Amino acid sequence: MIDTTIDVINKLGLHARASGKLIEVTTKFSSSIQIGKGEKLIDAKNIMSLLMLGAGKGTTLRLVIDGADEEKALEEIQTLFAAKFYEAE
């Protein structure tokens, strides 16, 4: 199990388009992927839950991944966040 944090650095935060891109990544993996603030974790494969997080720029999110492909899932999620969801600044 991986339990780490990740920072939201894109200008608009985890808005609809960014959440959609995150869903594209998380649903590729069989591992359980949860994301949230502190102890309140939600399913990172559920678009409505992601939108309800209200994670704006500067938010530090907790990321918990558990399963056979957890390392690869973490790598792809970190890449997506680091690339600011491939949005123009």
From TrEMBL:
Domain (HPr): give its ranges: 1-88
Localization, UniProt: Cytoplasm
The entry's keywords: Cytoplasm, Phosphotransferase system
Q: Name one Pfam family in it.
A: PTS-HPr
Q: Which GO terms describe its biological process?
A: phosphoenolpyruvate-dependent sugar phosphotransferase system
Name the major location.
cytoplasm
GO annotation, cellular component aspect: cytoplasm
Q: Which Gene3D superfamilies match?
A: HPr-like
Family statement: Belongs to the HPr family.
Record's protein name: HPr domain-containing protein
**What is the originating organism of this protein?**
Acinetobacter modestus
